[in-house]
Write a structure and sequence with these properties.
10 strands, 18% strand, elongated, binds adenine
């Protein structure tokens, strides 16, 4: 998969691309990530990319012509072009999965007060990483590419994060490692006895418990099995 990121701040991606799993995924050829400087498409001798808003008001607005040239020069019919904006659809694991199937994903990072509304016409998608406003689209672009690359990496290694929080639609069950006892806190006995049927039941129930306590909204859309309903009733009894 190819990921292209159009930004006014290419240096922000140095750390992101040169560490850990993302670096290894790129080295292994799982994906390529190209950072494109939008400023290279300014025709202005000072490389300006923004201008004052028509109609007046504070701040500067990213100009449509500069971004359009950057898009035209770096995309083709296979590109899926997504604008980073708090006005977009909210990013979640299911969107990461959808994007991970693409041949080429192009992420456009806005900055300053906003971008010329007409830029929207050159994008296929608009994505927000949550209901808060950041200073630019770079952190959203990193968050989105990180979660997408992680899924690709997984596919190549033929491992699965099928139990991840959100992959199943529920939050992940608690995990433990040695020591078995630390500061008076013990790893649940069921995880130490090697009985995989009991371990799976425990994990399912704890996953339901976490979801019920922390994100009950996720249960509304979740296709609960009869066994899940039984476990949830037990949890509610235990909570009384
Ligand atoms: N740009 C600024 N804030 C953003 C957000 N929450 N999501 C995506 N892009 C943004």
């Amino acid at each position: 998969m190819r990921i292209k990121i159009l930004t006014l701040f290419p240096n922000m991606f140095d750390g992101f691309l040169n560490e850990s799993i993302i670096k290894r995924a790129i080295e292994k050829g799982v994906c390529s990530v190209e950072i494109i400087d939008i400023r290279d498409y300014s025709l202005n001798k000072h490389r300006h990319v923004d201008d004052t808003p028509c109609g007046g008001g504070a701040g500067m607005v990213l100009a449509v012509d500069v971004v359009h040239r950057a898009i035209m020069d770096n995309t083709s019919e296979v590109s899926h072009i997504a604008l980073m904006t708090p006005q977009g659809r909210v990013f979640k694991q299911s969107v990461a999965m959808e994007l991970s199937k693409l041949e080429e994903l192009v992420l456009i990072c806005g900055h300053y007060e906003g971008f010329d509304e007409r830029i929207r016409d050159y994008a296929d998608d608009e994505i927000s990483i949550g209901d808060y406003v950041l200073t630019g689209g770079e952190i959203p672009a990193m968050a989105i590419s990180d979660s997408v690359i992680r899924l690709l990496n997984d596919a190549i290694r033929e491992e699965s994060h099928a139990d991840d929080s959100f992959s199943t639609g529920l939050l992940e069950y608690p995990q433990y490692t040695r020591p078995v006892e630390y500061d008076g806190k013990r790893v649940p006995d069921v995880l130490l006895n090697g009985n995989h049927k009991l371990i799976n039941e425990f994990r399912r129930k704890e996953s339901l418990r976490k979801t019920l306590l922390r994100r009950p909204d996720l249960l509304d859309d979740y296709p609960l099995s009869e066994e899940d309903v039984k476990m949830l009733n037990e949890i509610k009894e235990e909570m009384k």
